[in-house]
Amino acid sequence: MFSLPPIRGILSVFGGFLINMTVGAFHGTFGNMLPYLTSYRRQFDPAVRSGDLAMILPAGGIAQGISFLLAGSLIFPLLGPRRCLLLGCIVFVAAPFLGYLTLEGNLLILALCYGSLSATAVNMVLIPIILIPVTWFPNSKGKVVGFTACGFGLSAFVFTPLQTLLINPGNIKPINNLNTSEDSESVYFTSPEVLSRVPTSLLYLGCIYSVLFALGLLLCVEKDGEEKKKSMSLDDIRKSFRYLVCTGLRNRDFYLLWLTRFSLLVVCGGILSHWKSFSLHINKDDRLVSIVGGGNGAVNGCSRLLAGVLMDRFRFSSLMPVLCCLLSGCLLALYWVSMAVFPGFVSLLWFIFLFAFMHFATVPTQAIQLFDKEFNSVILGGIGLADSAAYTCLALLNLTFFSSDHSQYLHFFISLSGFAILASIVTYFVRDNQTKQIGEVNNSQTNQTKEIWEVNNSKTNRSKEIWEVNNSKIN
Q: Helices 286-311 and 316-340, interaxial angle, to 10°?
């Protein structure tokens, strides 16, 4: 008999969606903020380039991987889902306020306060946001994870136009850098009217994040009784680490999912960092480009929701290789199409966002299906350590292609295409849950057969001993 889903469960999922939408603002809109931040810093140091400020995202990503592991294996088990979620929200809100205070200071300090702090908070939020709503709908994990992850993607749809409205409401166009003839591909804002609004925009964004987080925290709660089942003792933390070391690190699927996240995060980080700088090189209409950025967010959000639905219908090892191959083709064609027609470039960019960001829903869903649900948080944290490696790799790509006066977008996109091909190969070998269960059943049957053989062999030995004793008596 058909029954309606619980209203409290629906509200919990929506609360997770709302929190995800807010916490996704750092990654989703960093590319939009990059030209503004770079232009503002150039007032004090004309030698600053977009590639210098682009290092803020890799700096955050490196901290993000470490925080993902700590959140999954230590903070989440120790504090519990609700308090871990609250702590992550507080840290995330603090980042733009500290960014306001350090915007004119040392670049490393800015990267730590605005980049690393934001990214650290993201993973403190993502693990409970994945695990809390699914307690209401255990039979639809893919859809729930996909819907809540959809909020992370839609962040750019909401906040990109808002940022442009706060900083450049008059749609003042940037200009090419004229300091050197080799830097003709780089464009910067020079209007005092635009630059004066960059610092205050961080304060406005911090206040908006606070309001949205407060509403999301009120709605996103676990199903009655589920939170009571979770122990928060140090014994459970040790048990989680043992499970990670003894089970997770000895399972090939753990490494395959880790490599999948690593490869696709390099692609996602590269596109998030440089999509607007490249778009302004093609078309200097800032308002139009911000609309394109909003479209990026809409497609990003839909990709996660679509991925969740597809994961409930298709095997991971069948779905992801196809998506990664399509992603690679789009990346290879992006530069050449952009030189020919702007609408074609926008279409390809949206397809890249559609395919690249699906892994944020598919990889956690597959991990939840393959491993013991009691230790989901530590497994997700271990896989999330790939973030640090991915953003370290992205930092090297930035140094290679954007440290000189001439940006090498073509070679950069070709490199990202290679990572997409790597992901397509890796995902093909990930086992699905059914295959894992069959393997476990076969292993169990083998063990049972071995035990029966040992028992029969023991009986045979005992019979032989009895016969020898009887034969000795007769003699």
A: 160
